[in-house]
Each structure stands twice: as structure tokens, then as C-alpha cells.
Amino acid sequence: MLHLIIFLVFGAICVAGAVNLLVQKHPINSALSLIAVMVSLAVEYLLLGAEFVAAVQVIIYAGAIMVLFVFVIMLLNAGEEERTAGSKVAMIIGIPGMLVGSGLLAWVLLARSGTGSVAVGALWGDPKSISRLLFHDFLLPFEVTSVLVLIAIMGAVVLAAKPEQLQSPRKEA
Amino acid sequence: MVPLSYYLVLSGILFACGVTGFLIKRNLITIFMSIELMLNGVNLSFVAFAAQWQVLKGQVFVFFVMVVAAAEAAVGLAIIIAVYRNRETLNVDRINLLKL
Fold first, then answer.
1. Predicted TM-score of the model (pTM)
2. B45 touches chain A (CB under 8 A)
3. B29 part of a folded domain
4. CATH number given to A2-124
5. How confident is the model at residue A170 (pLDDT cuts 50, 70, 90)?
6. Interface residue B97 vs chain A (CB under 8 A)
7. Average pLDDT over residues A30-47
8. Among A29, A117, A143, B10, which is 20 to 30 Å from A18 by CA?
9. Domain segments of chain A: what residues?
């Protein structure tokens, strides 16, 4: 019973944060509500027994990635978004589409899916067993993602650098 | 005991909110945050199915999704900075031409 109550409370925070992200006009408010969504999702992971995933969710997502977002919002001095004709059309089509889509999805999942129920900590994802899986069965994908991250770092440096800074070594040579 | 379908419904709602934000938002950074919301919704269903079938591999896949999301955020925000430097705007309705 307590499990269900905690699930419902943090699920409600999650959905409220996601809706707030859509409603807010200033990007910094959207970013803060996205952080609320991610932290309450970490609690949902804890309920499912994925303790290491929950810790990484808070550290990487709510910490690193969202700090990057907030940093860029402040760097570019992003103001309130302006409403245009395109956004009205998107709103007329998008919001009913979302309501119909999520309603249909909820109906199919609740009435037709026939999935079982999950107890607290049904599958205990502690760091030891996760790392055993990650460094044995998934060793090659792990190494490939490390290359991917390296490429992403280099791409970010190249893209975010000012054009003249990139060209200056070439002029000297 | 919480039915697995509740977790899946929550994940579906988050994904639908992300899709809607992608459609209705006009700020480039907010559109990018909607994509992150979609990835989070998918991660929740990964963890829920891992608990349902007692397979830890679902949780390992969440880490790969997180790595891809981090790489995507780094490159995407760098692209946003480059676009802003050339256009002086973040409104996607004004970023509609490839040439300046």
C-alpha cells in the first residue's frame, strides 16, 4: 500500500513537471521543471529496485546534463519564447493529439496488456551485479560508447569554438 | 505491489509530453529539453520491464541510453551555440534557411 502511495505521489510530481515544461514560456523555468521530473523518476527507479540507475540518474541527468542546459540558457541569454502562427497551428493539432495518444496508450496498457505487478525491489540492481554484466556481457558496446563520447567531445569543441579560433593555427602554418 | 502497467502508463505520458513539447515549443533549447523528456520516458519503461522479467540487462541498457543522451546534449548544445552566433535568435520559425 505504501509502495503504491509513493509511486502515485512521485508519478504525479513527474507528470506535473512534464506539463509545466510545456506550459512555461521561459526556458529556464522549463529546465527547472525538467530537473523535478528527473529527480522524481529517480525515486521511481528506486521503487523498482534499480538503485544504481537511480543514483546515476541524479548524478548524470539531473546533475551534468541539466547543468549544461542551464549553462547554455544563461550563456545565450535566452528570453521568453514568442508566439507565432506556426505555434498556434502546432498547438491546435498537438495538444489534442497528445491527449488522444496518451489516452489510447493508457487504455491499451491498463485494460489489454495483461502484465503482472512489481513488488518493491523485485530485481535488485546493485552496482556489483550491474558492473559484472556491463564489463562481461556488454564489454564491446561499452567500449564503443566510450569512442562515441570521445567523438561527441571533439564535435562539441569544434562546433562551439569561434570560427576565427579554428582558423588561426592554419594561418600561422 | 504496483501493477507494471502503471509504470508503463507513466512512461507513456512522459513520452507524449515530450512529443507535444517538440511540436508546440518554438524555442530551440526547450525543444531539445523535450527530447530529453522522451528519453527519460523510455528509460522508465526499460527499468520497469527489467523488473517484470527479472533480467538485469534492461538496467544496463538504461546506461547506454544515458550515454547517448549525454553525447547528444553536448553536440546539440554546441550546435545551438553556433546557430545563435550566426542568427542571433533561438526561434525555430526564424531558423528556416540553411544559408545566411
1. 0.89
2. no
3. yes
4. 1.20.120.1200
5. low
6. no
7. 94
8. A117
9. 2-124, 138-173
Task: Give residue B4's pLDDT.
Answer: 86
Residues with Cβ within 8 Å of A94's Cβ and at least 6 positions away in sequence, in order, are: B19, B20, B23, B24
Q: Are B67 and A64 in contact (CB under 8 A)?
A: no
The three cell numbers locating residue B35: 527530447
d(CA A100, CA A94): 10
What ipTM was reported for this prediction?
A: 0.92
Interface of A with B in 87-106 (CB under 8 A): 87, 90-91, 93-95, 97-98, 101-102, 105-106
Instruction: Specify if B51 maps to a domain.
Output: yes
CATH number, residue B36: 1.10.287.3510
Q: Do B81 and A75 touch (CB under 8 A)?
A: yes
Q: Is A140 on the interface with B (CB under 8 A)?
A: no
CA A130 to chain centre: 21
Distance CA A41, CA B44 (A): 8
Query: Range of B61's domain?
Result: 4-87
Cell 593555427 maps to which residue?
A169
Instruction: Check whether A92 has a pLDDT greater than 70.
Output: yes
Min Cα separation A118/chain B (Å): 5
A118 — alpha (psi -120 to 50), left (phi > 0) or beta?
beta
**Residue B24 pLDDT > 60:** yes
| Alpha carbons within 13 A on the beta-carbon side of A113 | 19
How confident is the model at residue A3, as a pLDDT? 87
